[in-house]
Amino acid sequence: MFRDFSKCLLVDQSIWRKIFAIKWLQGARKLFWSLAALALVFDQLTKWLLWSHPAEGHSPVVLIPNVLRIIPHPGNPGGALGLPGSPMLYAVAALVVLPFIGYLFLTTPAGEWRGHAGLGLIGGGAVGNLIDRLSLGVVRDFIDLHWAETFHWPTFNVADAAICFGVALVLWQFLLTGRPEEEAGAANSD
User: Fold this and answer.
1) pLDDT tens track for 139-183
2) Is 132 known to be catalytic?
3) What is the model's pLDDT at position 73?
4) 3-class DSSP state of 33
5) Could you say which of 43, 132, 141, 144 is catalytic?
6) Residue 74: left (phi > 0), alpha (psi -120 to 50), or beta?
7) How many CA atoms lie within 13 A of 19 on its CB side?
8) Which is catalytic among the residues 43, 132, 144, 160?
9) pTM, to two decimals
10) How many domains does the chain have?
11) Is 43 annotated as catalytic?
């Protein structure tokens, strides 16, 4: 019996195809995984580069004069855009949002690239900030967008930017282009 079972696992690949045919890598779902991984890796890499060399990494670096600079600060214990609150509250919020993103991932038709791209960016960004919150108790922000020292957008990081772009893509998909079922039906008729 054991030999039949191992033969089935090693030779009959149709079982594995059935297991992994759960719509995880079909169509635009590949984009979800790619962008989630890219957002997470780029977020953690930029934070690691800035905070691994504290002597060099904590002085401002001007990228565009009077507009954009890199200014790592000790950490943001609150939420996005400087919202107050407990770091653990935001960690719990991320842990609640991530399964919801998984649900949307599985229920969004495979051809809807904007929805999957947006969900991937939101998921990757949420995990990036969650890693900071759980390991450090704060989120490391470093991108300072300002206008000639008169206007300052709250300091943010790559994960925050990924979440914002992701929300924009999801809104574009689900609010501006119509119902997902209509697009899926139109795509299938082509």
Assistant:
1) 988 888 888 778 888 889 999 999 999 999 999 987 766 654 444
2) no
3) 74
4) helix
5) 141
6) alpha
7) 6
8) 160
9) 0.76
10) 1
11) no
